[in-house]
Amino acid sequence: MPRTKVIPLPLLGKRSVNAYLLLGRRPVVVDSGVPGSGRKVYDRVAEQGVDPNGISMIVVTHGHIDHFGGAAELSRLTGAPIAAHVGDLRQYTSGRVREPYLPTGRLGRLVAPLPPFHVRTEPFTPQVLVRGDTPLADYGIDARIVPTPGHTAGSVSVLTETGDLVAGDLIATPLLGLLPRRPWNPPFHDDPLANLASLRRMLDLGPERLHAGHGGMLDPDRVRRWVVKEQRRLERLEAKGRLRVRVDDAVSSDA
To answer: Metallo-beta-lactamase domain spans which residues (predicted)?
Structure first.
């Protein structure tokens, strides 16, 4: 099977919101942007010289509107099935995010009340319902979907045989990608410590590159150093009773 190539597909700004095109024997798309972005993803794939109608799967990394908002439209345009984790199924079938958002810092507190974060999109039921590690060889790429809960209960990442980790919102860069090489939290996490545990687990698998849903490509060694500092910060917040967690949505990594 051809080695998998990872191509970012910017959907908002230069790198504020990204989908990703994974190229192997057949193309796979990861994430679909905000509502109404299905056609934009379709066109971005075509700009890479790839027939969008050949997309074999659309992987949704989690149930936030800027990642699954265009999935139903893109699936309708391409005929490709959608794969997503059961932990966020209610978001997908309702077309709405789970609220309230739990901000990770100032940016999250600033944007959480804004209308674009509370819109409804076209709902869908994933044709491939992820519960554990899911190989993608049958869909044309040498990669697997891996549950990485914490950001949401149903968050997943995609790890390729070439060492690329397409991480959704497992990790981000500051100001929604304006500082592209610096590891940072996305604006929200349902369970920050669980997300950090998922990130550490994925780093232990030895990826060579991390690709964030918001921002550019990240160096794993730099992320590892950030994880150590972030663990200490979160433990201090937890000790003070200031760490907010959505307990009722928690799922294990192999749910």
So the answer is: 16-214
